Amino acid sequence: MRVLVSLSILFLMGQSAMAEVKKLASETSVFSGRVSKLNRVARLARMKIDFDNVKFLNKTDRVEIWNPSSPERKCLSYVEGVANDYLLLRIPKYEKCVTSVHFTTGSYLHMYSPNLEKNIGIAQDLIQILHRKRTALKARLSRHQKSVDSYIEKVDVVNKRYKLLKEKLELEWQKELSALEEDKTQSYLDYKKTQARLHELNYKLEQYRVHDQNMKEDRWSLDPELYYKK
């Protein structure tokens, strides 16, 4: 029983939605206008209109015309030209239409076009697709905007990180330089100590040096044969 009730409710909701769509389509495809000029020979009627959806009308589209006072009497016409404020209609049965609908220059008429209804339906479907695409693009734009907005924050994070690395590197640099300075000082001290010990050793060697002979050659003469030791 509950299943039948649910199905009935869904059916009624579907019928209501279809009725709303049909009503909307009727409202967007039914428009009004006032006869601006008639040409009996060419079977043309120029209508002054104030209708934004006129852009969905194309040449040769079918348009039904009737007088609001007699909606049951309709006249068939076809679009010959479309402008922002005017609509040029070709009426094949001109004499019959004038007689049955009772219109002349200045008459206020209602119009309906099945082609217009179809074109508006297609446009509405396209609008839904475009809305979905716009929603997707807005979401993507929001992500890109967040990425752009977070740029400064990311730069600050990178700057802080490399600042810490720079400070750490400078500390290590100073530490290495200090170590080198200590090594230099120690090496210099070792050099001086070793030099002093070498001088001390040379002094002792000089003190304890044993000469090969005690006599020295006396070289007062220019003749080497006259040299002698003393």
Characterization of this structure:
With 230 residues, the chain is α+β, with helices and mostly antiparallel strands. The protein is built from four helices and eight strands. The chain has helices at 2-29, 94-102, 114-149, 151-207; strands at 30-39, 44-49, 62-67, 70-82, 86-90, 108-112, 217-218, 228-229. The protein has a six-stranded antiparallel beta barrel with strand order 1-2-5-4-3-6. It has a two-stranded antiparallel ribbon with strand order 7-8. The chain starts with a helix and ends with a strand.
Task: Give me the secondary-structure topology.
Layout (H helix, E strand, L loop, with lengths): L1 H28 E10 L4 E6 L12 E6 L2 E13 L3 E5 L3 H9 L5 E5 L1 H36 L1 H57 L9 E2 L9 E2 L1
Antiparallel strand pairs: 1-2, 1-6, 2-5, 3-4, 3-6, 4-5, 7-8
Percent helix among the residues? 55-70%
Strand content: 15-25%
Within the largest sheet, what's the order of strands?
A: 1-2-5-4-3-6
Largest sheet: 6 strands, antiparallel, barrel
Q: How big is the Rg?
A: 56 Å
